[in-house]
Here is the input.
Amino acid sequence: MNLFRSEEHIERWLAGRAPGATISVTTLSELAHAWWSDRLPPEWEPRTRELNQAVLHRLGLTGAFWRLA
Amino acid sequence: MDEPDLRLRALTYGLVVELGQAPTADEVAEAGGLSRDEVLSGWRRLHEQHALVLDPATDEIRMANPFSAVPTSYRVRADGRWWYANCAWDAFGICAALHTDGRIETACPDCGDALEIDVRGQRPDDESLLFHCLVPAARWWDDIVFT
Here is the structure.
């Protein structure tokens, strides 16, 4: 889960491996804030798989690649 | 996840923020009035439920996501301290968890050029960068350190 300068840099880094998924850093930041902002309060409780999947869905991260186990 | 394990997790994360790094089992035991064995057995249950990640060689914390207990290529300046994140997602996650702006320093894994991103109001100042996730979501926890 890395940051890259451009698509060209990702392709070169993959070196023939099958690509995963690429999203903008802006979407990543939105995802991180939706995913992690509740982690430190003492009253935290684990989210269900369905709630986590909904976080991804709201940001357009859908399809087989983004389907959680 | 039962109530004692939720309390142990809250205590552990509270110490991460207080100390600026992941606490040892001994530090958590002292802070919580627990034995070291109680902390280690609780941490193992939390590890199995993906609430934190242990180093199998030491039984100490490897990840208190989004924080990393070991140096990584993702450094984050937030809340007056430097932190290590487990990956790019977690780097932004540290700003999110601390509810603060921050600065992320890393390098492009392809060319090695430094990437420095300021996060202000939950937005990165350089919107040209891309995030690549190699492992499908269903397999993230097969090997979370690789993911």
